[in-house]
Amino acid sequence: MPTRKALTIEQLKHALHLAGEVARIEAEIHVILGTDGSDAKLSPPTAEKDPRKVKRSSAVRAKMAAAQRARWAKSKGETSTPVVQNPKKKGKRTMSPEAKAKIAAAQKARWARSKSAKAPTGAVIEKIAKIEAAAPKAKKKAKRNISPEGRAKMVEAGKRRWAKQAQAA
């Protein structure tokens, strides 16, 4: 689509003419449909939601259930149960500060028991120290360096491999 700067006068006149035609056709549609024409644009009909899939509040669901129980009782010839108008909502449960403190203290006690069970005792620490003192410390391996002759041999071997692969291909 051309930009506004690239439009010619003829193109602008044609666009204005088409806009007038659209307005005239919309006015005719409003006359045919009997609407007042307050809608600036006609929108296509929207698909309605399936009423079975609409989310309902707990109060509405309770009313529906009570109504269904009443219909069921009526069909069986029994007396219906009263319809619940507003079921009582459960509030958000909160924990008292005393209960929180109790839980925190119990958790701290569990951690302390766990840590004390895992911590080595004095005799174990002494044994570990003796073993470490008696064991000879391993020397660090010196980094190995390749001599220039060895490096040259490796380069030549690589070149021969590449040449052999190039000939095979």
Describe the 3D structure.
The protein is mainly α and 169 residues long. Among the domains are: 7-33; 100-134, no CATH class. It is built from five helices and no strands. It has helices spanning 9-33, 58-76, 97-118, 122-134, 148-168.
Write the layout of secondary structure elements.
Elements: H1 9-33, H2 58-76, H3 97-118, H4 122-134, H5 148-168
Mean pLDDT: 80
- Bin the strand percentage: under 5%
Measured as a percent range, the helix fraction is 55-70%
Low-confidence segments, given as residue ranges, are none
Order of helices and strands: HHHHH
- How many β-strands, per DSSP? 0
Tally of alpha and pi helices: 5
Structure described in brief:
The protein is built from five helices and no strands. It has 169 residues and is mainly alpha-helical.
Labels describing this entry:
169 residues; mainly alpha
